[in-house]
Amino acid sequence: MMGALAWGGGIFLAAAGAWLGWRWGQRNRRRKRARARFHAAAFPRAWAAVLRRRMPVYPRLPEEIRQRLEAQVKVFLAEKTFTACGGLPKVDDAMAVTIAGHACLLLAGREGADCFPTVQSVLVYPGVFSSEMRTYDHTIGWEVVGTVAREGEASPAGSVVLAWCAVLQTNALAGNGHNVVLHEFAHHVRPGGGNLPAVLAEGLRALRTNENEAVIDRYGAQNAEEFWAVSVEAFFEMPRRLREAHPELYRALEEFFALDPAAWERV
Fold it and tell me: Which of 92, 110, 105, 108 is nearest to 47 (CA)?
């Protein structure tokens, strides 16, 4: 009887596994068909108007790059969830398109790039928000838990948190080197390939010793991850200044992103 039950259970588990596999395959096929429809559909005029208003570099992009950006924006808005937090009434279409446009600039140079597979959700606060910070105090041997005010945060668990007030100050090629959307989504892009890792490591060492650095935000001196994020900001926000001050870093980023933002910058 035990053998019969075990055998019967094996049949049930095999059948259940086959059914789940079929369901997963069906969902995956539906997702691929949906993505194909999004790619084929025209980019909505209302979305383009939002990007022209809140992303000044958008109309200056080369045609091929702009089309890739638009394709990624469509996928981003289809796949990611947006949640209003901290008393924000809602994340409307214009807000979502603004965030998606700036984030997808990181992907626009590479045809067929996955649309931030490690990001599932975007949480938006109206203003700066408090985030828990954990540090280890070696003098007392305890973990210290505190809070810090932030404009943005990238979670390895699959979310990006943004303060809308900071996003509104974010305009690609604004010239101030700060772009909270680019910064946080850069944390979800792996800085590998070519000589980029070595160039980043050398740049971090230089930033920690150079008190007169005027292009790369000193916030990046904290660690390799933050140096990567502020380098990405500088690359897209003030590319000509970065190219002049740090030509090797600029070339490595240009190769990695397959983009040359200095060519889009107004003289």
Answer: 92
Cβ atoms of residues 191 and 197 within 8 Å: yes
Map out the domains of the chain with their CATH numbers: 190-267 (3.40.390.10)
Quick one: average pLDDT of 206-232?
93
Q: Which residue has the higher pLDDT, 24 or 237?
A: 237
Half-sphere exposure of 45 (CA within 13 A, CB side): 0
Residue 24 has pLDDT above 90, yes or no: no
pLDDT at position 31 over 70: no
Query: pLDDT by residue (tens digit) across 125-177?
Result: 998 876 665 554 455 555 545 567 788 899 888 999 999 999 988 664 456 67
- What's this model's pTM, rounded to 2 decimal places? 0.80
CA 227/CA 197 separation, integer angstroms:
11
Its sign, for the CA torsion 150, 152, 156, 158, is: positive
